Each structure stands twice: as C-alpha cells, then as structure tokens.
Amino acid sequence: MPLYEHVFISRQDLSNAQAEALIEHFSTVLADNGGKVLENEYWGVKTMAYKINKNRKGHYAFLRTDAPAPAVLEMERLMRLHDDVMRVLTIKVDAHEEGPSVQMQKRDERSDRGDRGPREDRGPREDRGPRPDRDGPRPERRF
Questions:
Q1: Residue 89 and residue 56: Cα distance in Å, rounded?
Q2: What are 68-73's contacts with CB under 8 Å, separation 24+?
Q3: pLDDT tens-digit profile of 77-134?
Q4: I need a surface site. Which of 45, 110, 136, 143 has the fewest CB within 10 A?
Q5: What CA–CA distance (Å, rounded) separates 6 from 93?
Q6: d(CA 64, CA 52)
C-alpha cells in the first residue's frame, strides 16, 4: 500500500486531550477503510504565519500512514467537514523516515544550515557580487 504523511491543524480553543482525541478519531476512520497509522505525533499549540478563521494559533498533529488511496480520501473528506479542523496537508512519500519528525527533534540535533565557518573567512562583499537592493545611489529624501 502507498505511504502517506498528513499534517492537520485544529482550533486553538480545544484542550490537549480533545486535540489528541481528534488524532485517534481520524486513525480509526483510516483503519475502518483498510489503512493503518504507523506513527502519530502531537506537536502542540504553535503560532501560525497568518490567521485562519480568526485563529492565530492551532494544535498541530502529524500522522504517518500506510493506506489505500480511497481510505486517505475518506479521511481527508471527513477532516475537511469537521468543524475543529482548520487545515489539512497530505503528501505521498516513497518511504517513511526513521525516528521523530523534524518538529519533534531538539534544535541541537538538527543540521539546518551546516557549518558556514566564521564570517571573516568569507571575504569582502565584492567577491560575492553586487546587491542591487543596497548598492548604488540612494534616492533623495524630501521632508
């Protein structure tokens, strides 16, 4: 069966227990339609980049599943109809990564940018090309 990863955001005014109950509810929907949830993670309440339905924060949840496409479609349909779920994202993956997701890893364990070295070793700005937004004449300011 195909492998999927799902992330959904539920309303901020739910309790943690209610948000985790949503994970269980959608896991049973998937199981009833012939799929299975391999792993689920509750990421907690996080601030969103923009408001969704007048909410600034939301409960984030992550599911790794092994399910046929009709089961995933049914689960997504029910998520979109549910009043407490604000957003859903589902992607199909070739293989699930081992261990916790990036959101659950500690900052020190992540290798986001790698070692860029000290600033003085990078050389002057001219070696890396001009910056059109900063170089050149500035417009006159009139007050």
A1: 18
A2: 68/1, 68/2, 68/33, 68/34, 68/35, 69/2, 70/33, 70/34, 71/30, 71/33, 71/34, 71/35, 72/4, 72/30, 72/35
A3: 999 999 999 999 999 999 888 877 778 777 666 555 566 666 666 666 555 666 666 6
A4: 143
A5: 10
A6: 24
Q: Which two tokens stand for residue 44?
A: 């907690």
pTM: 0.71
Q: d(Cα 40, Cα 36) in Å, to the nearest integer?
A: 11
Fold category of 3-95 in CATH: Alpha-Beta Plaits (3.30.70)
Q: Which DSSP symbol is given to 133?
A: T
Q: How far apart are CA 57 and CA 34, in angstroms?
A: 33
DSSP secondary structure letter of residue 141: P
Q: Where are the domains of the chain?
A: 3-95
Statement: residue 65 has pLDDT above 90:
yes
